[in-house]
Amino acid sequence: MYLSIAARAFQSRLAYRSQVWASFFGQTIQILARIAIWTAAYAGTASVEGVSLDDMVTYSILAGTVLAAWYYEALIQDIGTSVKTGDVAVFLLKPIRYPLYLFSSAFGEFAFRITAVVLPVVIVISFIYGLQPPASLFHGLMFASFWLLSFIILFELAATCGLLSFWLLTSFSLTYFLQGVIALFSGSLVPLWFFPPAFEAVARLLPFAWIAYYPVAVYLGQLGVEETLLFFAFGLGWAGLLALGIAMLWARASMRLIVQGG
Amino acid sequence: MIAVNGASKMFRQPRRYSGLGGSIKGFFSREYTQVRAVEDISFAIDSGEAVGYLGPNGAGKSTMIKMMTGILVPTAGSIRVLGRVPHEERMANAREIGVVFGQRSQLWWDLPVRDSFELNRRIYNIADARYRENLGHLAEMLEMTGYLERPVRQLSLGQRMRAEIAMALLHDPKILFLDEPTIGLDVVAKDAVRRFLSQINRERGVSIILTTHDLQDIEQICPRLIMVDDGKLLFDGELGRLRAALGARRRLTLEFASDPGPVTLASARLISDEGVFKHFLIEDETISLVGILGQLGGGHDLKDVAIEEPDIEEVIRTFYQQRPALAP
Amino acid sequence: MIAYLRVLAYLASLHVRSLFEYPGAVMLAWVSQGFSYVSVYTAIALIILRFDTLGGWGWPEMALLLSFHLLAYSMGAAFSFTQFRELEEVVRLGTFDCLLVKPISPWAYIVFSGFNTQYISHVVVAIGLMSWAVGQVDIAWSIPTAFYFLASLVSSAVLVACIITMLGANALVWVRSRYLFSTFFGFWELARFPLNIFPGVIQFVMLTIAPLGFLAYVPVAVILGKDVVLLGPAAPVLALLAGPVAVLIARAHWRFCLRNYQGAGG
Q: Whole-model pTM?
């Protein structure tokens, strides 16, 4: 059943032709911008802290689109609207779990964006600038696992913010708070290894780092085999914790709905 | 006052394809179809008239009102309202007309009715004294004094519509355009609106142009009727003329104190004889009721007389069926 | 004229009044948006502090660029962004027709009835950063330079308002303009950085089709005395002209859209 929800989400995206073109275009520009920034930053220096410009180009491509494939702001806003209009109460009546429903829907959209936007963008950009292969087969496979984990954690963070709108009655502010945190701590623009040491130490442990930084760090072989597995486990831990949080939030939210009537 | 000459309006609409294959095809290509909403329509309306604009859905009624109010630009032909071309002198035109849309509200949802009126006062730059006078009169005529302070979202549709109409009249417009004003209203509200519109037309000389589906609107408010279908003009004239042209007859019922036996009239045809009640169909429209009764002759114990107009719905239906024969 | 302006002021006050019915939400929105910008700027600062310069621009200079970008954008967007992004919906509901039958400019009505106070947080962050940067950069401030600074700031704000107006106005003829805005924001992000770090094609686009290069880079580069790519000596004048030229184009576009407005159907 959840699979069909995902499929339906995928198909509905086909109707929005201009949105796909706009996304494709927007992402391409974003990556070009990042590559330009790093090229200017490196200006002649071959490598900084063991990372070369080519590495950073790959980082830009991966963090800029592959790991930014899913538009999480929409989820927070959708939950927020659903709460405001009271539509969310409908889910208490159906034989379906709201968080799982959201996940299936999100996954469908994610799959669509990968096929329709990310893949073309990566192909086009690699053509111009070149994308490095993964550091090794192991790292490549682990990258795929980290990629999935990244989506799950991103979804969970967005869903948590969305569910908080039950109490805060605003999804707008929550979206911006999350955006702010992700901009810095996910490593999306700046890899954590460029952070000042104390800052880096903290950032490495926060769940946001698994959204962009760890997947790309693994891909580039910046983490050894043991480290990779360790941080994967750590990431799973975060995913589990967040899932628990969502389950609790939804339980309390549904309680509130039943008692107050929306 | 209003002169429409050969006005036409064409729209381009993107074609939609159905099914999954259609979705994908629609993803890559875009085709358009031309829709003729209004086709070569001409008419003239004088100051003080009340005209009903009638037609089925998609006939081009709203499009015509939008062209007359300056919202849309005609693709061909000319439209002049109060001596101006509406879309070219939009602001000057707007000052002298009032527009009420049946399906969209011009009132601010969260604010009291009075605040929306106040905003209007400023937009139209209405002098204080005139504003207060108008507001007072309108509030009284439309029985709004009870809810002027309530936020619009708390009003019923009937109350809201009355407020919309009042708002459109605050600045003493010469012409009032209404696009389906009675749609969705209950019977009591409809009646109130119709009586009011009829009153301001007759007493204050405000010209009224009204689009509607509801024939009762026309009967109560507009002596003149313009009918359109498929963008084309079908009929322009008095409702009475339409009835006569269609051969729709008025029904005459005579009630006697006791059965007078067979009764014949020169200008009316007997359709049923129920003893005390006799039903006739009036054949000759030119003779007055007194004249018809005069044909009865003396010696009859007439207790009651009733005349029924033919059901207007029936008239219009007959009209659509006979359409080809009635091109104006 | 005065009466007209008073109508607009009244409209704005009506809207702001309804916004402040929930002051808590308004303030939370300010804090969250301010936070978001501070976060992004921190990320950029980290890059420059690590690498010394970006295309020849040090951190204080970048800070000036970023704050100018934000301030000009906020001033322009307060008069245009939410209003014109929503225009698509206003058209769909048919409420735009209602505006056309009133003796008021629909553009003015839309702008002032939706005047958005959310940009106050942006202005605060921008001015904060700008006050610091202005003291740190190597400029000989004088009355003419200060005047030029303010004038180009206004010109940029006007440029933003005009571009956003045009993007939204497409809703009058196409009925779907949302996606234009995401494209706009793509270029808007590029406008945060000195144009000289980008390939020639992008530099050209940012100065012509998507003239957001004039939003911050050109005026700030001029003030800092840096060479401006592609424009060279014409840069100072062009930065000031960007706003007025945009107004002419936007007005013509708006009139075109009104003329070809098809209405909401029915």
A: 0.82
How many angstroms separate the CA of residue B24 from the nearest CA in chain A? 7
Boundaries of every domain in chain C: 2-259
* Mean per-residue pLDDT, A215-234: 89
C10/B113 Cα distance (integer angstroms): 16
Per-residue pLDDT tens for C188-238? 999 999 999 998 888 999 999 889 999 999 999 999 888 888 888 888 899
Give B131's pLDDT tier (boundaries 50, 70, 90): very high
In the structure encoding, which two tokens stand for residue B30, read together?
Answer: 């875009």
Q: Chain B within 8 Å of A15 (Cβ-Cβ)?
A: yes
Mean pLDDT value across residues B146-150: 87
Interface confidence (ipTM) of the complex = 0.87
* DSSP state for residue B213 in the 8-state scheme: S
Q: H or E stretch including A247? A: helix A225-260
Task: Encode burial over B225-250: b for 16+ CB neighbours within 10 A, e otherwise.
Answer: bbbbbebbbbbbeebeebbebbebbb
Question: What is the β-pairing status of strands B50-54 and B224-229?
Answer: parallel
Q: With an 8 Å Cβ cutoff, are A17 and B27 in contact?
A: yes
* Contact status of B18 with chain A (Cβ, < 8 Å): no
Q: pLDDT (tens digit, 9 = 90+) per residue, C34-64?
A: 999 999 999 999 999 888 888 889 999 999 9
Q: Where are the domains of chain A?
A: 2-260
Sequence-separated (6 or more) residues with CB below 8 Å from residue B58: B230
Yes or no: say if C43 and A192 are a contact pair by the CB < 8 Å rule: no
End-to-end, the C-alpha distance of chain C in Å comes to 36
The one-letter amino acid code at B316 reads: I
Q: Do A11 and B20 touch (CB under 8 A)?
A: yes
- Which residue of B lies nearest to A21 if distances are taken between CA atoms? B27
